[in-house]
Amino acid sequence: MDNTQLKQQLVDEVEKRKDELIELCSSLIRIPSENPPGDSTEASEFVSDYLKQFGLEVDWHEASEKMYNLVSSIGDESGKKLIYCGHTDVVPAGDLSKWDFDPFSGEVVDGWMLGRGASDMKGGLAGIIFAFTLFKRLGIELPGQLTLAIVPDEETGGEFGVPWLLENNLINGDGCLIAEPSSPLNPTIGQKGSYWFELEVFGEPGHGSLSPVAGNNAIVDAIAAIEKIRTLWDLDIHMPEEVRELVDISKRYLREVEEEREIFQPVLERITVNIGTINGGTKSNVIPESCKVQVDCRLPFGITHEEVSDYLKKELDSLGIRYSIRLFGFKSVANYTSAQDPVCKAIVENIEFVTKDEAYGVMQWASSDARHFRDYHIPVLQYGPAYLPSIHGYNEKVLVEDIVRCAKVYVAAVVDFLYETSND
């Protein structure tokens, strides 16, 4: 049997067993795994038990209290190594009265899988788990190693999932696929950087009846500072030539695929600035002596954290205010994997194999665990089922057919990556 025939056999098996795949996804959604608080115990036990029923060994690694990383591998470890990665945690469901259905029901209605995590990312998680077991269940001997890494701590940008596994040398590979949500034909092969900071502006308290003559109002000074911070968007950033093609094709994607998002094209080349929270003052008749502002900036290719910090210092110093800046949360620079890397080609070419449509990789304007793999020189991309407008919102859902399609791509891509590249 040649590789194409093997791929088709695997794709056909996914189709034949799709009801089992969908039930697996439903079961995962029915397990609340909100982060915060981040307790992955129940979800991890379910995944481990599911894998063990097929004779697969699972290693447990507790990175923090009730945060478990699961690692399981099959195949020949002396060959090429491919990692399939997914996270069990989901963002909190929030106000349950704003949902049209139980966010933890895992129901299928009119072809839609419903519930928190359906798109981000229990649909993709079910797909990689199912694909992983299929090789074992069919008795297929892989010429390389396929590793399944199930992590607990992605949604808060925490350090107890992928970065912890990598730091402790518990996973390694020649390529990685993260089953994060994407569009059906466009995996994400690059992402912008992150620069989150808290600005604290200091004033002098006084009686509110004397403002603005008396005291020094920290909130007023913070407003002036915010206007300076927002000018980061206006910076003209020189983009390295080697990423120009990726940015241009990502713009094409916004124009031609997600047409309603065409307006977002400039985001790929500029620093975005979100003033996320403002906290200041004690009461209305007291001149505030402190105001804290938390800001989320995403950095395009062509600028560093140091350059952003230098710009902010220059602009804020020009105001003559008293302030401090503290970085927190996500910290990364823009990063990508070449579209010509074997792991990118394996996924993109098998999207085309399964769908018979043109596929290509694009950038995302947010951040994810992919950056950690690239820090360790592991080529990586993201591809998973999703109804993108519902991610992190109320009434999250995903099409059942998208879950099945992605699982077909996952099994086929293993063949191309491990079989064909093993002979290079």
TrEMBL record:
The keyword Ribonucleoprotein does not apply. Pathway: Amino-acid biosynthesis; L-lysine biosynthesis via DAP pathway; LL-2,6-diaminopimelate from (S)-tetrahydrodipicolinate (succinylase route): step 3/3. Gene3D superfamilies: 3.30.70.360, Zn peptidases (3.40.630.10). Its cofactor is Co(2+); Zn(2+). It catalyses: N-succinyl-(2S,6S)-2,6-diaminopimelate + H2O = (2S,6S)-2,6-diaminopimelate + succinate. One of its GO terms (biological process) is lysine biosynthetic process via diaminopimelate. Residues 189-321 form the Peptidase M20 dimerisation domain. Its EC number is 3.5.1.18. Keywords: Cobalt, Hydrolase, Metal-binding, Zinc. One of its GO terms (molecular function) is succinyl-diaminopimelate desuccinylase activity. It comes from the Bacteria. Belongs to the peptidase M20A family. This is Probable succinyl-diaminopimelate desuccinylase. It comes from Psychrobacillus soli.
